[in-house]
Amino acid sequence: MPDSELRDGAPANLSEGTLAEGSPGDGAPAERNLQAEADRAIKGLQDGLDADVSVYAMAVLVNRAAAELHRLAKSEATARKGTEQWGTWAALQNSARRLVLDSSPARDGAARLAGRAR
Question: Which domain holds residue 16?
Fold first, then answer.
């Protein structure tokens, strides 16, 4: 693969969060740029907020996203117990749990900056 197609060692479409997904009705795959969608969601969440409230919004988003990632990975790890994929799902579950634990103090600190109770 040419270097121009690589970003951080991954194919450009993967590092940019592009995902081929089927389109309802026509059978042709449609690409979703998940990175761009996430960036738009983040920007939308921050729109019109002061810096202290924006930091709180981002910290809450990170914590809630980590919690959802953990929930999904735990569910899939449980469903795949005893299969080849179980180890990968279990590792993701463990990483996601660490994200939840690491993001909680950031969320709590950001809440204090924004003058909000957690």
Answer: 1-47
